[in-house]
Specification:
- The protein has 124 residues and is mainly β.
- The chain has 2 helices and 9 strands, in the order βββααββββββ.
- Strands 1-2-3-9-4-7 form a 6-stranded antiparallel sheet, with no helix packed on it.
- A hairpin with a 4-residue loop joins strand 1 and strand 2.
- The C terminus is likely disordered.
Length: 124
Amino acid sequence: MSTLEKKSWSSPDGSQTPDKTHGATINFGAVSLTKVNLQPGWKWSECIKPHVETHSCQAGHIGMVLQGTLHVVSDDGSEITVSAGDAYRFAPGHDAWVVGNEPVIGVEFSTSGKEFAAWTRGEG
């Protein structure tokens, strides 16, 4: 195995495209990176919740925002807004939405073997 490796989101290892959402994932062994593009009007509870059927997003997220602004409300009532240049960690149990008319583009990192917001029942 080479000690140097390169991949592109233009030919990802996987992708998902729920309403107003595009996620493209590349894998490097146990580490996954997902580039996510959330369009204006995207809201987890409207675009993703119908696919996963959970009260709130039950996935944890670690990532960074490259463009746009995202507002997140935790099930415990705490709130945070992240914008271009911010790194973040969201624990499971939250809703989120794009703020304004600019798409949110970000990169999420995972070592859990799950792609960004694995849109399958029970996960988000």
